[in-house]
Specification:
4 strands; two-stranded antiparallel ribbon; single chain; flat; 83 residues; 20% strand; alpha+beta
Length: 83
């Protein structure tokens, strides 16, 4: 197997795995708050306390994956174009 063919096979494999992941689980944990919904802050004794609500996920703890967002966008364009 040549290196180019191996690289194409690996890229295709990872793409299909990511597409399957987006189809099975379209939402992932928020990268900013790690899925907690708020930022941690420490009090004077050094203990962790919940802080402000995360601005990126607005406290939902989840975000839509990039692949699922692209699929939703393509589906919306197709649906609007065929009406």
């Amino acid at each position: 197997m040549t290196p180019a063919l191996a690289a194409i096979t690996l890229i295709l494999f990872f793409t299909l795995c990511y597409a399957a992941l987006c189809a099975i689980s379209p939402f992932g944990n928020c990268r900013k708050c790690s899925g907690f919904g708020f930022h941690f802050k420490t009090d004077r004794k050094g203990r962790l306390r919940p802080g402000k609500v995360c601005r990126r996920c607005r406290g939902d703890c989840k975000r839509i994956r990039v692949g699922r967002h692209l699929y939703n966008l393509a589906a919306r364009i197709h649906r609007d174009g065929t009406r």
